[in-house]
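Why do we care about 3D structure at all? Because function follows from shape, and shape follows, mostly, from sequence. That is the central idea of this module. The next example makes it concrete: a single protein chain, its amino acid sequence, and then its structure expressed as C-alpha cells.
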Amino acid sequence: MTITANAKNWTDSTMATPLALESALTGARTTIIDPRRWQKAKVSYTTRHVACELADRPRELFLVTGDGVVPRPGDVALARVAEIGQHTRLESPASRRQLLFPGDEIVVAYGHRYAPDQYEAYVPGDLGLTNLIAAGGVIGTVTAQHTTMAPATTVQPLGLLADGQGLLTLGRCAPLAVREEAPPAGNAPVLAVLGTSMNAGKSLAVACLVRGLTAAGLTVAAGKATGTGAGGDPRLFTDAGATRVLDFTDFGLPSTYRLNHSTARRLLGSLVAELSGPGVDVTVVEVADGVYQDETARLLADPLFGTLIDGVVFAAADALGAVAGVSVLREAGVDVRAVSGLLTAAPLGAREAAAQLDVPVIDTYDLCDPDVARSLPR
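And the structure:
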C-alpha cells in the first residue's frame, strides 16, 4: 500500500505512540530519535520554524520510514549527507553557511525547485537517495541542470520527522497560514519587482528600493512571494531597512514551483495583507524567476495581481529583455514604473533600453536615492 505521508489528520489523542503512528501509516516504521542525535544535526533555514517550535516545546521525536511512505512538499526529514557536490554548505536558521561533510545529519524539507541557472528538481516518490537542491535546506531529485553546475550534493533521507501528533511539516509549524480568502491589503501602495529570469537583479533592486524609501523617511515592509526557500534575500531586505520581512516559507512552503494557482494567488494575497498592516507606508514584494515561468505567468494573468499590486519595477539582464518584458507586463495590464536590474551595470545596454522605452531606466544603486525611490510609489 502506498502512503501519502501527510494526507492524514493526525490530531487524535490516540496518535501519541510509535505504534499508533505505524497503524496510521500502513507499511510505515517508527524509531525514537535520541535527543543527543537531534541536537547534533545541522538544521537548515527552511526548517527554522520547526526547530524553533521544538526548542520552545521539547518532546519525543520519531523517524517515520518504510517503503510505503511517499514524501510530499513541506515534509521535514532527517537526512545523511552521502556525497558532496554543488552545495558544500547548508544555510542555518540564522543564515550562517554551515560546511557539510559526508556523514553529516541534516534537517531539511522536501520541495520542488525551478531555477534556470541551477536545477529543476521534483519531490521523489520514496525515501531513497535524493539531492540537496538548495542551500536553504530543500531536497528533491534533480531532473535538469545548467551546464555550469556541478552534480548536486547527494543525501540519504533517514526518515520523516514526527512527534506524538504526527508528521512535523513546514505548514504545521509555520507562524502564518495561507488564508482561504486573504483580507484586503491596507492603504499603503504596493510595489512588485519582477524580472526576465533568475539572476536578473530582482533581489538587489528590492533591497535598494527599500533603502531609498527608508532614507526618504518612510516605513517599508518587504517580502518574497515566490521562489525556493533561502535566507539570503529576506536577510538582505532586513539589512536594507525593512521593518517587517516575510517570505513563502513563513507560510509553510519550501518553494512555490508546481504550486496550484489557487494556492499561489491566495499566498500572494496573504503575504501582501500581512505586510501592509498599520504603520506601513510602502510594501515591496519580489516575484521570483521570469515572467514566462508558469506560476508567475498565471499570477500576472489573474485580475487579483492588478488589485494587489499598484506598480512594478522590472529587472532585466539586457536591453532586449527589458523591452520584451515591459511589453509582456503591459499586455497583462500591469503598470510598469521603471526598469532596473543587471542591465544597468552596462551603460551601453542601459542606453539601448532607454532609447526604446517610455519608462525610466534606473541604475540599481540609484534606487537607494530617496528622491528616486520616492518617485515610484504613487
